[in-house]
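Good morning,

Both structures are done.
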Amino acid sequence: MHPIERLRYVARASGAGHDVLVRETASALATFIDDPAGMVTACRRVVARQPTSGPIWWLTSRVLTAPDPMREAWDAVEEFENDTTVRELAHAIEPDLTVTVLGWPELVASALVRRGDLAALVVDVLGEGSGLVRRLTFADDDAEAVDVPVAGLGAAVAESDLVLLEASAIGPEAFLSIAGSRAAAATARSCGVPVWLVGGAGRLMPARVWEGLVARLDVDEPWDADDEVVPLDLVDRIVGAHGPEPVADALRRTDCPVAPELFKEL
């Protein structure tokens, strides 16, 4: 594939995992190593097409603020691929719990596959939950995984010991996650069920970058959006490479620089 076509693929891809987007974006940006102006335009284009991906903002911000952009890009890819969040999450959850998850969250799903002693109530948000149930039961015939319709979200949360939400980006006071996350977190709070927010590499945003990301969201009809902004005060712990931490402690680990060039529209 021609490098420019690769960039277009990355920019337009929908449904691709963050790991694929980060790796493919770095590969595409490598072609602009001798074209600084083209590099800026390329980063803006990817962000414009993937505005809800915290890792893409993180990667492009690092590239545009680094003295050696491509070394920084591949350092970021290595850091992203070596992220230990899944391992820490799988280790931190106590055995024999019932957990509620929404849709098919990448990191959470990987942690659940590693564990065979958890009962998962998987809410079928965006039609993704049933696929995760099949994946979990395929990995372990004895796995307890229930396909919950969206209408049963509240009931599932109330019957859980823990709610696991996954963020695509985390700001100073809120996070972006799949639709239904706010209802799940609010219901959990009212029922006394703890909520863990799984972040992972590239998702903790400083205020300026978070504001730029939120400004790109289509909020004309938020009830039809695939993602929604949820207040962090509904979260008990943020889980990253250092395991579950109090929200304030986790936010101190923000490592995304601010690249003013990204905030200009194409």
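Second structure follows.
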Amino acid sequence: MQGYITLATGSRFYLDLAMNLVLSLKLNDPTRPVCIVTDRTMDIPEACRKFIDRITFMDAKPGFHGCLNKLRINEVSPFDETMFVDSDCILLKNDMDRHWAKFQSPGFCSPGGKATSGRWYGFDIAKVIKKLGIDYMRILNSGVFYFRQGAESDHFFATALDLVENHKELLGSFHRNKLQLADEPFIGATLGKLHTPTVSYQPAEGSIQITTINASDMQFDPFTHTSRITRYDDFRLLGRFFPRTHVQHSPTFAHFVKLKPKAVYQRISDQLRDHFGLPRFTA
């Protein structure tokens, strides 16, 4: 069975985000079930439960908070094939069949490009791969990834957890609120260590997700399957100003990092909750 899974641990805020994602999945891919992973103490209103196909619980583990728990997600998924999606994503289009087909793998699979130099999460990639004895790292956004239950994915996640245990000082980079380690460096190093195949997209075909960071001209509507966004890159000043390039994309998932732009996210949240009869949520 194929299904979606997302994390909603810590506070009610993350459950509210997860519900917006769930509603967008029910709108645009209603045949695949959705599982929310949460705390045993999370109060999930009955009005929300009717849209959630599965609820599983992740027990606390020392040193693991927030996004780092993605490295344990295979332990709690109820599906044979799982598409993990960050709770701050919204499914805009109804073309997930092509992505499920593209991601088919005996183990873990995600988009991601090879890197042997440069900086990522504050560390020097060349130094990291030399110390780890690997050929490269994969630079990725872990907002969406796929895995198939079995020996290969178990080995992948076990390798990532081993890197957390033994190379935290090398790959550890605090994420957002400085209380949780980022998962992406550990995933990127594991992809390089195991030479795990990845998938790639050209802008013209429409990628599975794009973040709203460094972007403009967002036209998103999950009801009309409208998805257009312009992303900027290669900034000439301080890595933030005067971009050299801009590319137009039409992603299937919009990944609203830090819920920005809040006005766009709020509008879509209101649309979804009004349509499905849930109380509005303020981003």
